């Protein structure tokens, strides 16, 4: 599967500039452009494991989050989440994957039974600070986040977060009870990753 890197970049930047306007946002976008956010895959072998997959995944999460929030507001009109928070959390939840993958070669048997070298994405962690928490740290190097934004990005992996596997169930549960955006972002991320996007 291939993605249209330049078209996705254009759409992403338009959404970003329209909704994310707080101090430091322009500097963060510049950093993303100077690094590999728009060319990176979203994973090494699962969802969107293609060049440009990270940006496309982030756009998918944004679209799903907007849709889910609109549905939930029909039942819970008191849900009060700003357009900026929605865009910020969806578009930036996986900043931890910037400069995280590199292309390497491996031997694979082709259909004729012959070995050939093929490229694949390997991980190359340069800033080992976790996943959701690393995305929060990168965001906060450039701009301030609200408590709800921090919780949503921090816990967007849900039960797949290594800290939850290690016993942080009370923390993630408390975050989901306190912040609706954390629950909704996690749902949007999972819908994107497991239903909407090509895996493998």
Order of helices and strands: HHHHEEHHHHH
Helicity level, as a percent range? 40-55%
Oligomer: single chain
Largest sheet: 2 strands, antiparallel
Percentage of residues in DSSP E strands: 5-15%
What is Rg? 17 Å
Q: Kindly, what is the distance between the CA atoms of the first and last residues, rounded to a whole number of angstroms?
A: 10 Å
- Are there runs of 5+ residues with pLDDT below 50, and where? none
Question: What structural class do helix, strand and pairing data support?
Answer: mainly alpha
How many DSSP-defined strands? 2
- Taken from the alpha-carbon principal axes, the silhouette is globular
> Kindly state the mean pLDDT as a whole number?
90
Our count of helices gives 9
Strand order of the largest sheet: 1-2
What's the short story on this structure?
With 200 residues, the chain is mainly alpha-helical.
Explain how this protein is built:
This protein is 53% helix and 9% strand. By secondary structure, the chain is mostly helical. It has a two-stranded antiparallel sheet. The relative contact order is 0.16. The mean pLDDT is 90.
Question: What labels describe this entry?
Answer:
200 residues; single chain; 9% strand; 9 helices; mainly alpha; 2 strands; two-stranded antiparallel sheet
Topology (elements, then pairings):
Layout: H1 5-19, H2 25-34, H3 53-75, H4 83-92, E1 101-109, E2 115-123, H5 132-140, H6 147-154, H7 162-165, H8 169-178, H9 180-196
Antiparallel strand pairs: 1-2
Helix pairs in contact: 1-3, 1-4, 3-4, 3-9, 4-6, 6-9, 8-9
